[in-house]
Design brief:
It is a single-pass type I membrane protein. Belongs to the calcium channel subunit alpha-2/delta family. The structure is a single chain. The chain is an alpha+beta fold. The protein folds into four domains: about 180 residues, no CATH class; about 190 residues, no CATH class; about 190 residues, Rossmann fold, CATH 3.40.50.410; about 110 residues, Beta-Lactamase (2-Layer Sandwich). It contains 19 helices and 28 strands.
Length: about 725
Amino acid sequence: VKSWADAFGGELYSIVTKYSGSLLLQKKYKDVEPTLKIEEVDGVELVKKFSEQMESMLRRKVEAVERLVEAAEDADLNHEYNSSLEFDYYNSVLINEKDENDNYVELGDEFILEPNEHFNNLLVNTTYSDIQLPTNVYNKDPDILNGVYMSEALNPIFVDNFERDPTLTWQYFGSSTGFFRLYPGIKWLPDENGVISFDCRNRGWYIQAATSPKDIVIIVDVSGSMKGLRMTIAKHTIITILDTLGENDFVNIIAYNDYVHFIEPCFKGILVQADRDNREHFKQLVDELQAKGVGTVNKALTESFKILREVREDAGQGGLCNQAIMLITDGAVEDYEAVFEKYNWPDRKVRVFTYLIGREVTFAPNVKWIACNNKGYYTQISTLADVQENVMEYLHVLSRPMVINHDHDIIWTEAYMDSALFASQAQSLLLMTTVAMPVFSKKNETRSHGILLGVVGSDVPLRELLKLAPRYKLGVHGYAFLNTNNGYILSHPDLRPLYKEGKKLKPKPNYNSVDLSEVEWEDQDEILRTAMINGETGYLSMDVKVPVDKGKRVLFLTNDYFFTDISGTPFSLGVVLSRGHGEYILLGNTSVEEGLHDLLQPDLSLANEWIYCITDIDPDHRKLSQLEAVIRFLTGEEPDLECDEELVQEVLFDAVVTAPMEAYWTTLALNMSMETEAGVEMAFLGTRAGLMRSALYVGSEKISNSQLIEKMSTVTIYPQDHF
């Protein structure tokens, strides 16, 4: 068996060596070695440079949002509210709709839409924004009309922002009255039931920008009187409150009847981060609550005040900002004044919001008194339909201090997926983050009320950010990744946010709260994770196992991790270089004439996913492939093309060194005898600069793996985020 194996191995080795021409290629690189420069990659410098470029790109996005906020606040200042205002606007659901007489319907005028590559080939109108309203908001409500009329002032700013910074994508204004102004304007389609459920006020970016981080204890009455519909409404109210919380908030839930119980006993006496996993866990437990016994609210209130006090005084815990108690009950009878006196007065550091469940009004004055004497807000919820609007009210109260002081905090959301992009991109590149800022009323007469007009936001696709850390600078097995100050990944080649259900791709439920420790497995304690969350700059090396070929094989490598923060944002950037290949970079010098001659050969291509030249900004350049763009750049045909000169230089060098391969392969193909050497079908090579050459030894109809040829011509060998 051993001699068979040796014979087989020897045979295979000699065939592969002969037909691939690998020895010739090695010799060609050896020949040019004296003229090469070999430089060591400085990871610390690299990560700093990348992070500075990312910071300046993100700063441009912030400036765009700031211009919108300023315009919206000025427009509101100069707008007199008019309750009988008549005004036709572009309603994104009604645009281009006609009635039976072939006239455009009201609010649905002609709105020109054209496909635009920059917006994933959706039909858009880049000169104008349009308005989307959820089904439960009346589109001619005076509040809506006044708000839409006032926010018309944003149109020229949207357009101007887009001209100044062509990498901007969607820009929008979500109003506290419920309308959503989106630029560029699009046609919005209702779901299969004809309902438009999107309400900008429930989106993470809106809620995070409208309020600061908060610590919240929800107290729910589960005494016998809450049975039936009341319990259903109460549960729905809790779930709605949970949905307004995010990673920066802390929460716990207490249910009370004869005694107090934390609905999750493990969280007794503490607050937990309101991340996705904890919120889902709470929702399941809330669903199982049952009403029985007699309600005594005092113990529950005492317990809540104690938790909040502990969090407040023990520095470094909780949201360090707002604190509130949400009391959900159908009435309160006992003497609860003493509790507030002991724990909350005179400073009133904790706001108390009360939700009276049901149609009864007997206890309304008591429940209202609790809220009004603790800087809170009182609402009565008698049907399921009231829940959403009433819960949203608390956000306005919590945002009041920010409004009165005009604190325009810039917020960045964690990564999320834009469903329009599902089909089109590599999985790790679908994600985006939103930069958002609140818009306040500047009118003097209402300034002390703290009126929030809405939130302005813009989307930043993470792939735009990663373009600033180009692949070729990181070497084989190198990559860059981003994470947030909550330890969640924004972008990482191993983040696989989608899964297949039947034929459809769907996002995994927790795709935007995958922790860094789940993809970078540290053997020791979580040094890397801790340092990155704290926004430190540093270096670390680790032995890692890297899966290749979709996890069929594993390589053992030593990787060097370099990391730093991106200032002005809650994000950190990490760059990974592998020891050996990743430590050095080759710099060849080739003249343009020499290189161009070899680039123009037919069987040569460049990795189209890589960015040799920027082709996606100027519409005239969009039709060019990367190879065409590089050639025009070198011949000077398109003087205004911006290209990465270092990468183009490497391509020229690789083109010249690998040129003799074509002749070698051609000679072999001509002299092949089909009987003795059947089975060798094609040869190909790829270089670190993304250059590919290939040669067929048989007619293309004879290739046994026909997909391979298709793959060679597309992107899969050089995806954007890893080799």
